[in-house]
Structures are given as structure tokens and as C-alpha cells.
Amino acid sequence: MPHLFSPLKLGPIELTNRIAVSPMCQYSASDGSASDWHLQHLMQFAISRAGMIALEATAVERQGRISHGCLGLYSDNNERALARVLAAARAIAAPGTAFAIQLAHAGRKASCLAPFQGGRPLRHGEDPWPVVAPSAIPFAEGWPTPEALDGDGLKRVLGAFSQAAERAVRLGFDAIELHAAHGYLLHEFLSPLSNRRTDAVGGNAWNRMRWPLEVVQAVRAAVPRTIALGARITGSDWAEGGLGVEDAVAFASALKEAGLDYVCVSSGGNVSHAKIPLGPGYQVPFAAKVKAATGLATRAVGLIATPEQAEAILAAGQADFVALARAFLDDPRWVWHAAERLGAEVSYPPQYARVSRAIWPGAELVRPKQQGAVPA
Ligand SMILES: Cc1cc2nc3c(=O)[nH]c(=O)nc-3n(C[C@H](O)[C@H](O)[C@H](O)COP(=O)(O)O)c2cc1C
Question: How far apart are CA 334 and CA 30, in angstroms?
């Protein structure tokens, strides 16, 4: 059996395979509440046969949204809207499909247009809101100067993380993932490029980890052990003086200690001048290092697109599972096609079973067998 299609224990839950749909903001919510777009987005992945489906960055408080269209979990309305979407997706998903939600706070990168509207900070007349961060340093020139969170602010946001986690528990998610990457609030605290505080939550690496770890502990306390708890962390800021993979190892070790079940290692997003050497699997070495050093279940992500590439990452022991984002937007049937290419069995939803290669000659026309591929 290919590694990709073997089950994986993730703390209290077991994934049916090692393929995750990566969290992807849809910028299609209304005051944080999921819409029909989310319904179709999740429904198509519900029949994808991915072992884990991770919902997009979901703001723990209103001002923690990146844009007006971001999903949130800060109100009863948000919770009701998400309950509808999740129930519908669960009803059609294969048994054992794990639904995860990513809880986030955008920090100094909040109050923006959606990327497909230009992604710039909101202007007067576009209902902007004040943004918060560890220090009063804007993300880039032309971006708003954030307010440095004071003691009360830190308490408020920590409380918001824990309340949103309670809502996620009530909703019945199988896994909860804290977003500590991509230059959002938790990452901003970790990185010396965005955290210049001189109090107990700034300064040396340990101090910079202190508040994110307090958030983790609060969320851990709010989430029963039957639910997997993970985090997306950063492998590198890709900028001088910023975080590197050793920092990722230190943070992941602390997360393990705090009772987290997995990490996903991404990178970048904290400063606009980062130089990111994009290429196939460019973040995988970070995941490999974190996995080897901590033994924590580790997910690799970033320009992983083909089944063979994903399989090779797992076969080499560089990660325990993989997340794909754009490859799933391109082909929501990625898992079916990966099974075909790698010679694994995957059950199709019976309504769509007639497209399997075994019984549909058209499969050979659209996906001629490639040299080297294992025949289905
Ligand atoms: C449309 C879109 C939305 C995204 N939204 C999120 C998000 O909400 N949270 C997150 O951690 N990453 C987000 N990402 C990053 C992806 O999860 C993933 O890490 C990145 O796209 C690299 O993986 P890929 O090469 O498979 O696309 C998003 C990516 C895309 C394409």
C-alpha cells in the first residue's frame, strides 16, 4: 500500500489516509458567517476522500479577520452558519473523514481587501478597523500602524481564542488547528521582526513564545482530548534576523509539551521583503527537521502537487502527512486520481462510481497511463 493511503493516528483521531485539504480562505463570508459558497466549497471536498479537510483561517474575534469576507467564529450567528455547512458536508463524506478548523487572528494584517480585490489595506469609507499586534510596526509601507496589545488586550484575544475553540468543539470538529504562521498574530509574537516588546512577552526567543504558548494552553484546556489539536507554524521568515528552522523546532517542542497532536510547517508572510525560493516542496525540509527533532506528527505543505511527489515525501520519512491547497482547487478529485496513479484502492461515492478507470474507458483518454505509473 502506498504511504499516502495508509492510516495515520493523530493524537486521539485516526486519519483514513495521509492527505489533507489545506486551509484556504474563501473571502466569502458575511460578518464572519459562512455562505452558500462555503457550502459548495466544503461539499466538493467532502466527497474528495481526503483524510483531513481543514477549513480556512477562521477569525476568533471580529477585528481578527483579514477582510470583511473572512470566516469567523466569534458570534452565535457564525456558529449557526457553520453548523449548517458542516452538517451538510458530514452527511455526504466518507466515514472517518476528519474535519478540521483553523483558528486565527490576523493581527497587523487585518482590515484588508480580499486578495482578489487587490489585497491592500482598507481605506476610509471601506469600513476599516484598528489593527493590533505585538508592537506598533506596520506590515509594510502604506499599511496601518497597529496598536501594540496591552495586558488587557492580550487577555481579551486569549479569551477569544479559547471561546472560539469552545464553539468549534460544540460544532463537532474532529481537529482544531491554531494558525501561528503567515505573519498573523501568533506568528507576529514569535518573530523578532514583528515583536520588539521589552516586557515579558518580547525579547529573547523564550519570551516571544510565551504569549502564543499561553494561548495554546488556554485552547488545550478548552478542547477535550477526544479532539486533535494542532498548529500551523513557520519554518522560516525568509528574511535576515527573522525566524529560522531552529526556532520552528523549539516552538514545535514546546507545542508537543503543551499537548498538541500535530504541526504543519509553512513559511513566510511576516514581512513584505521576504525572499522566498519557491519551488516544488520548498518547505518540506522544514517539516523534515521538525519531525526528526521533535517526533511530533508533522504535515508538510507548499507546492506539493503530484501524487508521486507526495508519496516520495512520506516514503523518505520527511513528514507524516501532506496538505495540498491549489492542487485541490485545480482538481477536487485529486485523491481519486492519486489512488489510480499509485495503485491504491479508494471508494468512490456510489453516485459517481462510473468514472473509475476500471469501468470507464474515458479515463484512459483524459489521463493516459504515464510511464512509470503503477497501473490501477
Ligand atoms: C486560495 C487560498 C487561500 C489560502 N488560505 C489559507 C488559510 O486560510 N490558512 C492558511 O494557513 N493558509 C492558507 N493558504 C495557504 C495554503 O494553505 C497553502 O499553505 C499554500 O497555498 C501552499 O500550498 P499549495 O502549493 O498546495 O497551494 C491559502 C492558499 C490559497 C491558494
Answer: 30
C-alpha grid cell, residue 283: 518547505
DSSP assignment letter at 300 = E
Q: What is the CATH number of the domain that holds 230?
A: 3.20.20.70
Domain that holds residue 183: 3-366
Cα–Cα distance measured from residue 298 to residue 284, given in angstroms and rounded to the nearest whole number = 10
Whether 373 is in a domain gets the answer no
Residue 352 designated active-site: no
Does the residue 239 lie in any domain?
Answer: yes
Q: Would the pLDDT of 376 be above 60?
A: no
In tens, the pLDDT along 246-278 reads 999 999 999 999 999 999 999 999 999 999 999
Q: Report if residue 320 sits inside a domain.
A: yes
Ligand 1 pocket, residue 232 CB under 6 Å: yes
- Establish if 372 belongs to a structural domain: no
Count how many domains the chain has.
Answer: 1
Contact 243, 234 (CB under 8 A): yes
CA of 278 to the centre of ligand 1 (A): 14
- Cα(44) to ligand 1 centroid in Å equals 17
Say whether pLDDT at 373 is over 60: no
pLDDT of residue 369: 84
Question: Can you tell me the mean pLDDT for 187-191?
Answer: 98
Is 102 close to ligand 1, i.e. is its CB under 6 Å away?
yes
